[in-house]
Amino acid sequence: MSPTAAAGPGPSTDGVRPRRLFLASCIALVATSVAFAVVGAIMLTLKREFVLTNLQVGWIGGAALWGFAVSQLLFAPFCDTLGMRFLLRLAFLCHLVGALVLMFASGFWMLFTGALTLALGNGLVEAACNPLVASLFPEDKTVKLNRFHVWFPGGIVIGSVLAFGLDQVGLTAWQLKVALILVPTLTYGFLVLREAFPPTEGVRAGVSMAEMFRATFTTPLMLLMLFCMAITASTELGPNRWVPAVLEAGGIPGILVLAWINGLMAVLRYKAGFAVERLSPTGVLFGSALISFVGLLWLSYAETITVAFASATVFAVGICYFWPTMLGFVSERIPRSGALGLGLMGAVGMATVGLVTTPWMGQIADRIGHERLPEGQTIALFEEAVEALPAAAEEAPAERREDILAAAETVRTALERTRENGQLPEIATANALRALIDSGAEAGLADRADAILGPADNYGGRASFRYILPFTGLLIVIFGLLYLRDRRAGGYRARHIEQAA
């Protein structure tokens, strides 16, 4: 079994205060997740205020994922050399500057730069704090990493609720939502300003950078864990990125379902010791894969609020331990991979979700959703819209006129392609319906477009969840075999970094 009983604060190092550093790490992760939540919450507002295209909005929102991965890849290998305090201070600077650039942005490039800078800060927090927690609590890594990672879903809940609360009290300026990031940022910045940091486990054990790279890239178990990290992250974060949009298209409050998932994850991660002590990390990973498979399958059939929350509960129980337990397993079983191994795990997970899983699920949703569009109703709506929108544009306020004319052109193009090909064009049809909904020209046209597109988007999005299931099923097999191997060997055993030499 894993040595997860209440452990002391790691090896004593002069001037190091483990509790204060752990608190600072948790607040830094809150800053990361609040930034993640706030940038997502203001996307629609930014699109309207700065007249951005969907492509530009995609670049701003996507920076939250691939910027994180880039930061991990750039800095995690040098954590031993630069030091965890340097990386955390650099994270503070990125969070501070990124938030201020966003708040005072005057166009796309400043918005993109601010979002990317925040994402780099997010990656730096993970690059610094994962090895920091492992160094502070070498006898209790998996449990402590789970408790540290409480604050990613916890921070998303905090950020989402506060952003929602600002809207409810009439403080709707998006800059105020961005300013929420500054509260945890300034707090953890103050905590680490003069704090002494311990050396990383690799430095303490005299592990060279060459050894760290060798342990990371030549150990078969490490390569297997990198492969599994891509799938565990996709199972957790891929559907989570789509839950609000997919469920809201079906008339279910998706943002509340997402908040429920993240709230449960935070509570369960805090109590991770109960699961890890009884099942071991490999047992937890095996159980997580099994439960998340069931939860995601059930969630893909959620057509009512009751089923949505019930299936989301099972899904949350399944995914909650994935990310931190994967990191804990690598740190305990391949300790000489050090900060590089932990950083690469996070980078692979986030890059896979941002560059592969999320757009792939969107592509699937577009294709399957298109098949659900009622052709006759859609064509009739387009024919009516082509006639009505030019006149509506003339009567509309000047600031809405361009959107209405753009919608008219989008609908006209889709209708012409339908007549040429004898069937609705796959992407152009959905875009034309969205343009009608967003144009604000005619309430009747917009409502009818929403009634056509909403059910199709909901069905296609839920169907895309099922395409993740074969990969999650593969995790069940892999983690099940690892768990059985540990049991045959007499139980799970963490390896100390000196023993792994």
| β-strand amount | under 5%
Mean pLDDT: 87
**Ends apart, CA distance between termini:** 22 Å
Shape: globular
From the alpha-carbon coordinates, what is the Rg to the nearest angstrom?
A: 24 Å
Q: Topology as H/E string?
A: HHHHHHHHHHHHHHHHHHHHHHH
Tell me how many strands there are. 0
Fold and architecture overview:
This protein is mostly helical and 501 residues long. Among the domains are: 17-206, MFS general substrate transporter like domains (Growth Hormone, Chain: A), CATH 1.20.1250; 373-463. Helix content is 80%, strand content 0%. It has 23 helices and no strands. It has helices at residues 18-41, 43-49, 54-75, 79-82, 84-103, 108-136, 141-148, 151-168, 174-179, 182-192, 201-204, 209-218, 220-249, 254-270, 272-299, 305-319, 322-333, 338-371, 375-395, 398-421, 426-439, 443-466, 469-488. Helix 15 (272-299) crosses helix 17 (322-333). The longest helix is centred in the C-terminal third of the chain and has 34 residues, at 338-371. It is globular, with a radius of gyration of 24 Å.
Could you give the topology of this structure?
Layout (H helix, E strand, L loop, with lengths): L17 H24 L1 H7 L4 H22 L3 H4 L1 H20 L4 H29 L4 H8 L2 H18 L5 H6 L2 H11 L8 H4 L4 H10 L1 H30 L4 H17 L1 H28 L5 H15 L2 H12 L4 H34 L3 H21 L2 H24 L4 H14 L3 H24 L2 H20 L13
Helix pairs in contact: 1-5, 1-6, 1-8, 1-10, 2-3, 3-6, 3-18, 5-6, 5-10, 6-7, 6-18, 7-15, 7-17, 8-14, 12-18, 13-14, 13-17, 13-18, 13-22, 13-23, 14-16, 15-16, 15-17, 15-23, 17-18, 18-21, 18-22, 19-20, 19-22, 20-21, 21-22
